[in-house]
Amino acid sequence: MIAVVDYRAGNLTSVCKALRALGCEPLVTADPDALRAAEKIILPGVGHFAATERLFQSGLAAAIQQRVAEGALFLGICVGLQWIFSGSTEAPTVPGLNVFPEQCERFPDSVKCPHVGWNSLDVVRPSRLLRGLTPATHVYFTHSYRAPAIQATVAATNYAGDFSAVVEDGNWMAVQFHPEKSGAAGLKILQNFLELPAC
Amino acid sequence: MLTRRIIACLDVTAGRVVKGVQFVGLRDAGDPAELAERHVQGGADEIVFLDITATHEGRDTLLNAVQRTAERIFVPLTVGGGIRTLEDAARVFDAGADKISLNSAAITQPNLIEEIGARFGAQAVVIAIDARRKQPNQTEVVAPELAEVYINGGRKATGKRVLDWAREAEQRGGGEILLTSMDADGTRNGFDCELTAAVSQAVQIPVIASGGAGMVDHFVDVFTRGHADAALAASIFHYGMMDARTLKEQLASRGISMRLPC
Known about the structure:
The complex is a heterodimer. By secondary structure, chain A is α/β, with parallel strands linked by helices. Chain A is built from six helices and 13 strands. Chain B is α/β, with parallel strands linked by helices. In chain B, 35% of the residues lie in helices and 26% in strands. In chain B, strand 4, helix 2 (58-70) and strand 5 form a beta-alpha-beta unit. Chains A and B meet through helix 1, strand 7, strand 9 and helix 6 of A and loops of B.
């Protein structure tokens, strides 16, 4: 079962529509117990980092952590990527899940912000999510904060310097862009995630 | 590298796509969902639906079209026209829009920008500005800083200057500006690059230029001289004069960064 976590941060319609177009009927849930039965967990998210506070308050964060430790695959999208870092300067008092100890920061004033539009992926390591994609594929971004490029970065994107566009570390995977809005390339990335062998 | 975007705009009224010249003289151009899908297949980076009459009766028809479209396209879909409350916006998002665009309501109730942004994220709020540098029946064209903002489908002058309003909209949390030159709209004589450049330099958020697209040179101009982050067009796509892919290939060959292949 594929669970899409509903923590009332923006709208999940687009992600679910893309999954349905790929033949997957996700379970949209705000129930930690439901997550404990999931083989794959998708955490979408748009908007403010502060919205992720609800994940800790509601027990969803603990359920995600436990289930991924047991072998479930996690896919964070946009704020869902930022959340598995230690936090974001957007909401300094709200902790992230700290899978990666680095912090997310706002783009510098030297560029237009938010970073909106189609930018290219610079693939730096073999990636399960990006299998079968052509080099320098364009995907759709819309965000004001970014995670730095780190060891777990499999694809970086350049906008006032490189940042993490795709991270993969064991069962933790996340993308800063919106695969559900990135045309055929985005659907291929979601399909790759759906096809990965689950626990 | 971040590419410039080519956005196909569908003006919708009573569930049909229409196109006029300088906001009047509408002609039927087809079914919104079908046309949106055709534009995406043709290489468009985004789709915008503008409900240009936004009557109460037409609303459900529009939401139905948004829903049908969102099931078929997987690029960003913006919907504008007639959004006056948080509830109106929520219905449009529920139907599958990724962004909403606010025009008249942003002027008359600017708090709406913050309200919708707080619930759906600032990136989901596009501020549409219709601006005019030339008064009807006059020949004098004023400087871009003096361009005036119009609302109610271009029928009502607000007395606001375009740069002031663009800055205010940004401060209130708008995620992008969709700037339409009423003087250029529907003429196919080119975008108002001076106006676009002035607004683009006044704000830190992306600016989408609209009004006047007729040929490839116009897009080159608006991306270079006009400093636009995206350009929107309607009629050149609808009537099969050119698809977005051909346009983008030609722009790329002239040094403008584009999403290709698409």
